[in-house]
Specification:
single chain; 311 residues; mainly alpha; MetI-like fold
Length: 311
């Protein structure tokens, strides 16, 4: 009897511990499910608001006019509701920032991953990530007081606010995203691949260009697309640097307006709520959402093709 009591106590303690762990796991499951549900509800709510408010706009303006019109002046008489000038301005700034950020970002990532010492990397990479935390309005201010005069010194015919200003600042804003993700992906390439290439007589440049970069191609492409998605959605820096003149142009020295900058303009409160002019911000927001969705789908397709190519 004396020996049976400790065994019963041990069994009871083990059963209590199992019940406690099960209760903790159940609570954790409910909390995580709640977090996921909130995320889904928030996303669905945003999409529904965009659709419902946009329907108010499209009851007065045809979808065809909205998508194909080449003039955008909803706040002036006569009114025009063609979104192509805003779309053109958004693509001009996005393409310009990508041209600046992608080569510099990829080169920096390759240097930090393959050539820099560990001490240098530990100092430089956190500094680049701090750059991502600077508010966008600060970049916009720097574009107005520093980059714009510099561009006008080189190109005297450039407007004070132009697409080049926005492209430069947005390029530097998305640079940390490309550097951080690409460097992590490059460093995650197995060392055995590098050693096998060195064993065949390859040089450092051969290994980097012919082995490491192709092996990390999917991750590098993901960093590019993520940075481009941020460039499309950038607001304050573009609103301050690019101007507020919607026009169809490919000249980066001219003043333009992006979709996000127009939303900022109308959201300042001068437009009566519930009016047709007010509902334009939801129509533009829906167009921006659709553009981002198409980009994400295209990104997934690209990543799938790249993985199939190098696997």
């Amino acid at each position: 009897m004396a020996t049976a009591t400790p065994k019963v106590s041990a069994l009871h303690s083990s059963s209590s511990g199992a019940k406690f762990r099960a209760a903790v796991e159940l609570i954790l499951h409910v909390v995580l499910l709640g977090c996921a549900t909130i995320s889904i509800i928030t996303t669905v709510g945003i999409v529904l608001v965009l659709f419902i408010e946009s329907l108010q706009f499209f009851r007065e303006v045809s979808v065809w006019e909205f998508l194909t019109g080449t003039k955008w002046s909803p706040l002036l008489k006569p009114q025009h509701f063609g979104i192509l000038p805003l779309f053109c301005g958004t693509l001009l700034v996005t393409a310009g920032s990508a041209i600046i950020a992608i080569p510099i970002g990829l080169g920096t990532a390759i240097f930090l991953s393959e050539y820099a010492s560990s001490g240098f990397r530990d100092v430089v990479k956190p500094l680049l990530e701090i750059l991502a935390g600077i508010p966008s309005v600060v970049f916009g201010y720097l574009a107005v007081v520093f980059i714009s005069p510099l561009i006008r010194d080189i190109f005297p015919n450039a407007d004070l606010f132009n697409a080049a200003n926005a492209s430069v600042v947005v390029g530097f804003m998305i640079l940390p995203t490309i550097v951080s993700i690409s460097e992590d992906v490059l460093r995650s390439v197995p060392r055995s691949l590098r050693e096998a290439a060195y064993a065949l007589g390859a040089t450092k440049l051969d290994v980097t260009v012919g082995v490491v970069v192709p092996a990390a191609a999917s991750g590098i492409m993901a960093s590019f697309l993520l940075a481009i998605a941020r460039a499309i959605g950038e607001t304050m820096a573009v609103a301050l640097a690019a101007g507020a003149t919607p026009k169809m142009t490919l000249n980066p020295l001219e003043s333009i307006q992006t979709m996000t900058a127009y939303i900022v303009q109308v959201s300042q409160g001068d437009t009566p709520a519930g009016s047709k002019e007010y509902h334009t911000i939801f129509a533009v927001g829906l167009a921006l959402f659709t553009l981002t969705l198409i980009l994400n789908v295209f990104a997934q397709w690209i990543l799938t093709r790249v993985r199939e190519k190098y696997e």
